[in-house]
Amino acid sequence: MEEMTLAEYVYWLRSLIGTQKVPMVFACAVVQDDSGRVLWQRRGDFGWWGLLGGVVELNESLTDCVIREVFEESGLQVAVERLLGVYSSPDFDVVYPNGDQVQQVTFTFVCSVRGGAIHVDGGETLALEWMPVGTLPKTSLWYTAMITDLRLNSPVAQYKHGTAGNERLQGPFYRHLRQYIGHQPFVAAGAVAVVMDDAGRILLQLRSDYKQWGLPGGGLELGERIDKTAVCEVKEETGLDVEVVRLSGVYSDERFYARYPNGDELKAILAVFVCRVTGGLLEIDGDESLDLAFFAVDDLPPLPDFVQEMIADALKGETGCIYETMFHKT
Prior knowledge:
alpha+beta; Nucleoside Triphosphate Pyrophosphohydrolase
């Protein structure tokens, strides 16, 4: 597929699937000035106040997206300071004025101003206003959740707002979507689990597609929050019941543009969760998993570089969340 602009990507996707609900990945910015005020945008689509941001494109990382969107919508140049949280509950589903239905998976970053001058484009943005953190204008549930987390002033990235969703009752969404788009690439949110036992060993899965060891995980399904995706994928692929301990990292650079053996292409935006085992029995499904085993940290089998990085980040035990920086365009 030739490189497309954001508008072209959304138009292309909607021309094939219509208005039906689809998960879409967004990057959002809580832009603060030197006094801590937050920049709010009166949106052109809904008319209420929101935070700046938009849909992630095929050829950019989350931080690329948030920097681009802030500049396009406000004229400001910003630096990303930290990941505030991931907001993906089905409680935050949205129907746009044109009827398009979306389950949002929004990665929100706290940003500082480094340059530029505020301007209002009169299209996406009807007005821009700096407001104190304690001020909450008329806005949506998800922006309210973001400001609630900002007021916590915690380095821990949040992900639990809203209901976790229902149990999986239908087949994978990507198979449904492939009926419309074929092998063409799309941006998809997924979750990966670093599952550790009481001895600190890490669960690895010998994948059936690439015949390599890796971490269990998969794509977010309609109607579930992204941490529940991790729990469901571990259960389906390994037979184990787990609970999420924390979000350790999000990954979105060019390494996560995948071309599968069957020809499918995908740009993955991955949230990695540290998990602990609460029950179940280890069982190879014979479909996605060819083998399963716990490995000591100092005795891991050969792994792709990005898997090694995810494990290393998870083992740091930091309260903050690791995130990839820029997408290296070729």
